[in-house]
Amino acid sequence: MRRFILYSRTGETAPFIGTLRNAGRLDIVYQCILMSMFASHAIRRDVEFHAFLYGRPNPPIHLTIDGGRLYDVRVDEETWRKILNETLSGAPHEGVGVKKEGIEPYAKSLDEVYVLNENGEDIERLNFKSPSFFLGDHVGLPNKFEKSLIAKGAKSVSLGKNKYLASSTIDIVNYLLDRKGV
Asked: Which of 52, 106, 132, 154 is the most exposed place for a label (fewest CB within 10 A)?
């Protein structure tokens, strides 16, 4: 099992009207869901995606996508706009969960934790069993939270000195882990 955990500083935490972009940049969350959960013509059944939404009006919200249980989805933005809006309204969707929870308690429950950061150790040099990768949205992880993860034993890992979109980072990590057979 691999996990991707996104810290979304602006993602709206209640039902919304309009586009994902206008809902506190939930378009970034959607793009990360796609790169986490989908391969060509398949759902990645061994992946979980978590987004912690800290936007208005009711933060924090923990959004979970479980590839082992996810069904009845397509990859288009409109499908995910409806799913996210419905689950934020309290309606169920198989494999998608929403609860009132911050990122800190969830982080404490994980064992093999990595923080994606340009200054970390080269990801290709490491071996993984059941990794959990933390990353930030377009603003990044809060420094205090990132430092607390490292202080509690998380490893800082890097894809290199270039900065990538959060969704691209997830896609690259999936590619590298697929090559390693993780």
From this structure: 106
Structural domain boundaries in the chain: 1-182
Tokens of residue 139, six digits: 């603003």
Q: Compute the distance between CA of residue 177 and CA of residue 22 in angstroms, rounded to an integer.
A: 33
This prediction has a pTM of 0.96
| pLDDT < 50: residue spans in the chain | none
Contact status, residue 35 vs residue 89, Cβ threshold 8 Å = no
**DSSP assignment, residue 28?**
H
Question: 37 is written with which tokens?
Answer: 């959960």
Q: How far is CA 42 from the centre of its chain?
A: 18
Q: CATH says 1-182 is which class?
A: alpha beta
Contact 21, 67 (CB under 8 A): no
Amino acid identity, position 132: S
Contact 135, 169 (CB under 8 A): yes
- Spatial contact of 76 and 31, defined as CB atoms under 8 Å apart: no
